[in-house]
Amino acid sequence: MVGVISVSEAIQLAFDSGLDLVEVSPNASPPVCKIIDYGKYKYEAQKKANEARKKQKVIEVKEIKMRPGIDDHDYHVKMRNVRKFLDHGDKVKMTIRFRGREMAHQDLGLQVLHRVQEEVEKVAKIEQFPKTEGRMMTMVIAPR
Predict the structure, then answer these.
(1) pTM for the whole thing?
(2) What is the DSSP pairing of strand 124-133 with strand 136-143?
């Protein structure tokens, strides 16, 4: 702690000690500076940033596509994948794709999505309820 000194004195002190004069808080009155090794300071800051990036979990949105007339075995395979994605902490976007005359029977697609909803309600919550957009009906499920 040197106290309030002029800029030229601070630069001279830093030069004498073989370190750098770094402005820590430029908006303060008077501005606050430190005499430190700037290269080492940048290295430490980069290490902290990398450590923080390692610890954060990136939530991905996985998509499962189905058709309204999906067979039981195919449905169970898809549901196994849904549970696996939810266990890993990812969100799942369920998509029912309608082709041709299937557009007249959108209630079948809605039944499939309600069946999915009932099966995963213990391990997941519905983030976006079934919504029709053109030839697709989508629903987003997030882990609890």
Answers:
(1) 0.61
(2) antiparallel
Task: Kindly give the confidence (pLDDT) of every residue in the chain, 144 residues in length, as a single tens digit, with 9 standing for 90 and above.
Answer: 778 888 889 899 999 999 998 888 888 888 888 999 999 989 999 999 999 888 887 788 999 999 999 999 999 999 999 999 999 989 999 999 999 999 998 999 999 999 999 999 999 999 999 999 999 999 999 998
- Cβ count near 49 (within 10 Å): 10
Q: Return the structure tokens found at 98.
A: 């309608």
Phi-psi region of 134 (alpha: psi -120 to 50; beta: other; left: phi over 0): left
The edge-to-edge listing of strands for the beta sheet with 61-66 is 61-66, 91-97, 136-143, 124-133
d(CA 62, CA 144): 16
Residue 91 CB neighbour total at 10 angstroms: 18
**Which residues lie closer than 8 Å to 20 by C-beta, 6 or more apart?**
14, 35, 36, 37, 38
